[in-house]
């Protein structure tokens, strides 16, 4: 069976084998992730990773669509989920539908993701009823950095659990097919996972979640600063730097290009 996974396929994984998800923003990295993961997130974290921004707030719909298209071209099997960037969906459910429809039509992706719990429930229902699968995102919502003040784990005091649980339940009841739970105290993430009927995909959350997601460059060791919840599965930063240094040295000493890397004249007669 060679077809691409769908939002309903991911939804059906609740309580089963955990869902493996990573971000990708490029065709070639998408291809690598596609061979091993169930879902690929074209996250608005591309603002930091690709563009050197401090936060995700300046990321635009055009940036998301361009990278979403690249990831769709580079993958065949995984469900591709594209993040809705700040300012493209919060004003009204109609604004959200028009923005999300552009993403789905112009990239061919199978789902979109949007941050927010109770406040976004009506919008999530509006999109899902009109044919756009929505992945929710609760707990730490980085697009709200300017009102939050800092990127801090949520629910580390059990007195604060109520609104976070209410957010998760609202997203599930609105018809989302899954939800990201970001930077939430472990027992709360586990409790939410038991309480909602859709898969939870943790990042800085709990091993009890129905799946996990990380930013690819963070887990590969390509990002200079990473949150505590990132586990490094690779150390590509130093490996790339060694390759770049060797190249620059060979250029300067004329060791590169060698005879294998240039075109001699064709042999005549
Ligand atoms: O933008 C992103 O990469 C994300 C994940 C961290 C969940 O939203
Ligand atoms: Na994001």
Our Rg estimate from Cα atoms comes to: 21 Å
Mean of pLDDT = 97
Percent of residues in helices comes to 25-40%
- Reading the helices and strands in chain order gives HEHEHHEHEHEHHEHEEHH
First-last Cα distance = 53 Å
The low-pLDDT segments are none
Tell me the major beta sheet: 8 strands, parallel, barrel
CATH level 1 name:
Alpha Beta
Please tell me about this protein's structure.
- It is a single chain.
- This protein has a single domain (7-259), classed as Phosphoenolpyruvate-binding domains (TIM Barrel), CATH 3.20.20.
- The longest helix is centred in the last third of the chain and has 17 residues, at 236-252.
- The chain is built from eleven helices and eight strands.
- An eight-stranded parallel beta barrel has the order 1-2-3-4-5-6-7-8, surrounded by six helices.
- The radius of gyration is 21 Å and the shape is globular.
- It is of the alpha/beta class and 269 residues long.
- Bound molecules: 3-methyl-2-oxobutanoic acid and sodium ion (NA).
- Residues 43-45, 56, 83 line the site of sodium ion.
- Its EC number is 2.1.2.11.
- The active site is at residue 182.
- It catalyses: (6R)-5,10-methylene-5,6,7,8-tetrahydrofolate + 3-methyl-2-oxobutanoate + H2O = 2-dehydropantoate + (6S)-5,6,7,8-tetrahydrofolate.
- Its cofactor is Mg(2+).
């Amino acid at each position: 069976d060679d077809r691409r996974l769908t939002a309903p396929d991911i939804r059906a994984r609740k309580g089963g084998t955990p869902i493996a998800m990573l971000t990708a923003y490029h065709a070639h990295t998408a291809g690598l992730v596609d061979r091993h993961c169930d879902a690929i997130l074209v996250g608005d974290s591309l603002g930091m990773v690709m563009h050197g921004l401090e936060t995700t707030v300046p990321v635009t719909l055009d940036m998301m669509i361009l990278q979403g298209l690249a990831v769709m071209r580079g993958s065949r099997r995984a469900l591709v989920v594209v993040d809705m960037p700040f300012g493209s969906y919060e004003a009204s459910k109609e604004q959200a539908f028009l923005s999300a429809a552009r993403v789905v039509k112009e990239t061919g992706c199978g789902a979109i993701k949007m941050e927010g719990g109770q406040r976004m429930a009506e919008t999530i229902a509006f999109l899902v009823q009109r044919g756009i699968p929505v992945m929710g995102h609760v707990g730490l919502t980085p697009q709200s950095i300017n009102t939050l003040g800092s990127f801090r784990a949520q629910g580390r005091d059990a007195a604060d659990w109520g609104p976070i649980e209410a957010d998760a339940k609202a997203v599930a009841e609105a018809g989302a097919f899954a939800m990201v739970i970001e930077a939430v105290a472990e027992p709360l993430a586990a409790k939410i996972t038991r309480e909602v009927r859709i898969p939870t995909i943790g990042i800085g959350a709990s091993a009890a979640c129905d799946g996990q997601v990380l930013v690819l460059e963070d887990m590969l060791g390509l990002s200079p600063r990473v949150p505590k919840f990132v586990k490094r599965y690779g150390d590509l930063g130093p490996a790339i730097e060694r390759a770049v240094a060797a190249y620059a040295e060979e250029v300067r000493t004329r060791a590169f290009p060698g005879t294998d890397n240039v075109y001699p004249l064709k042999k005549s007669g």
